[in-house]
Amino acid sequence: MRVAALTQDLDASTRRIADAIGCDPALAARVLRAANSPLFCFQRNITALPMAVSALGNETIYSLVFMSAAAEAFTKGARTSFEKDLWEHSVAVGFAAREIMLMLRLRGLEEGFLCGLLHDIGKLLLLRHDPSSYKELLKVGHENELLSGELSIYGLYTCSGRSPRSQTLESPRRD
Amino acid sequence: MARVVDVADSIAYHAGFGVRLAERDLAETESVMALRLTKEQLYLVVDRTRSGSGDAFSMLS
User: Which of A113, B1, B12, B24 could pair covalently with A93 via S-S, beta carbons 3.0-4.6 A apart?
Assistant: First the structure.
């Protein structure tokens, strides 16, 4: 979180941010992997953290801190293939959100990736809190039924921006 | 942002990264209409998500 704070500090130098990243080996590895990832299409091979920080920019580093934390949450102690599928789904949603924003020329690509990546974090929490019941609930075919089930069993639902009520009243889906 | 994530969620299912059985018709959702995305644009993002998510998996694993 120190890294995230530094990326928001206009006075923080690239070296200072790189040094803070270097204190967390897992984050450092992810930042270097990101800098050399085809997702960002940099021309040269980036081998040092200050170069990576400079190439990726503060906004991307800020997102990577949270992505790194999300990766830990989803993959550390993942017990079932469903949890692995949920992680892959979340990464794909993050990637698709970024692509949509790029296509529509919207600002905040990294924020889009992050929102997509975290949109199902509530499902992971419910799955770990109450594995057997929630797994059964996930078998329902329709998203609306899932949300209503979550609401009746847990008193909350795990969607972002959608609610069973708004879906029912405003935009009934085709079956 | 909620609209973008809603569409991205459907796209992930269509790209083969789903976690449940049934999903919506990709081009017929309220969010797709609100964002004014065409069918061609949607399927382009599906293709890119299918091919590009592997890079994202390796970056984050």
Answer: B12
In Å, what is the CA distance from B10 to each residue of A52, A54, A114, A161, A167? 33, 34, 17, 14, 15
Q: What is the ipTM of this complex?
A: 0.91
Asked whether residue A84 is domain-assigned, the answer is: no
User: What is the tally of structural domains in chain B?
Assistant: 1
Contact A52, A31 (CB under 8 A): yes
Give the dihedral of Cα atoms A83, A87, A90, A94; nearest 10 deg. Answer: 170
Q: What percentage of chain A carries pLDDT values higher than 70?
A: 87
The tens digit of pLDDT for each residue in A16-39 reads 988 988 888 888 888 888 888 877
User: Closest partner residue to A173 among B17, B18, B24, by Cβ?
Assistant: B24
Q: Is A41 on the interface with B (CB under 8 A)?
A: no
A28 falls within a domain: yes
In a domain, A11, yes or no: yes
Q: Record the pTM.
A: 0.74
- The pLDDT of residue A174 is above 70: no
- Domain count across chain A: 1
For residue B29, the enclosing domain spans 2-60
pLDDT digits (tens, 9 = 90+) for A36-79: 887 777 777 888 999 999 888 888 888 888 877 877 777 776 66
User: Does A133 map to a domain?
Assistant: no
Nearest to B50 by CA among A66, A99, A107: A99
d(CA A102, CA A104): 6
